[in-house]
Amino acid sequence: MVETAVVVEPNGAVLYWHEPRRRTATALPDSRALWLVLWEARERLGGVAHTHPGVGPPHPSAEDLTTFAACEEGLGRRLSWWIATATDCVAFVWVGPGRLDYTPAPAGHTPWLDELRTRSTHSAGGL
Ligand SMILES: [Zn+2]
């Protein structure tokens, strides 16, 4: 489940907060608005972070992986895909050779992390 996502530049600057009104049980939501943000910002994108409920090390869902791959294929470039839980934040990056071969990497500079968690917490549970 995705409560909140954020699109960021390589330096950590926030480009877009993605907080769809209607939460879904999908991974990164199939959102035209989000896709348009990614496309418009494709030259300066660092990646996309989203939240998972609970605590502990995050793991991308099968749908997360196919979404990562589809976005990168559409954009023609690789990104970092952070997933944050209440206690951890991990960046997933493509390593190949398979289409869905993403591996955990250090989260790096994540100045948006606290706000992502706050927005996620504040928006959770309200259908
Ligand atoms: Zn996810």
Descriptive account of the structure:
The chain is α+β, with helices and mostly antiparallel strands and 127 residues long. The chain has one domain (5-123). It is 27% helix and 23% strand. The chain has three helices and six strands. It has helices spanning 32-40, 62-75, 113-123, and strands at 5-8, 14-18, 47-51, 80-84, 89-94, 102-105. It has a six-stranded mixed sheet, with helices on both faces. A hairpin with a 5-residue loop joins β1 (5-8) and β2. The longest helix has 14 residues, at 62-75. The protein is globular and about 35 Å long. Zinc ion is lined by residues 2, 27, 50, 52, 60-61, 64, 83.
**General shape:** globular
- Which small compounds were modeled alongside the protein? zinc ion
Q: Mean pLDDT, as a whole number?
A: 88
Number of domains: 1
Strand order of the largest sheet: 2-1-3-4-5-6
SS-derived structural category: alpha+beta
Largest β-sheet summary: 6 strands, mixed
Total DSSP E strands:
6
Low-pLDDT segments, ≥5 res: none
Cα end-to-end separation: 13 Å
The SSE order reads EEHEHEEEH
* Strand content bin: 15-25%
Tally of alpha and pi helices: 3
Helix content: 25-40%
Give me the Rg, rounded. Answer: 13 Å
Question: Which terms would index this structure?
Answer:
127 residues, alpha+beta, six-stranded mixed β-sheet, 23% strand, binds zinc ion
Provide a quick synopsis of the model:
Helices cover 27% and strands 23% of the residues. With 127 residues, the chain is α+β, with helices and mostly antiparallel strands.
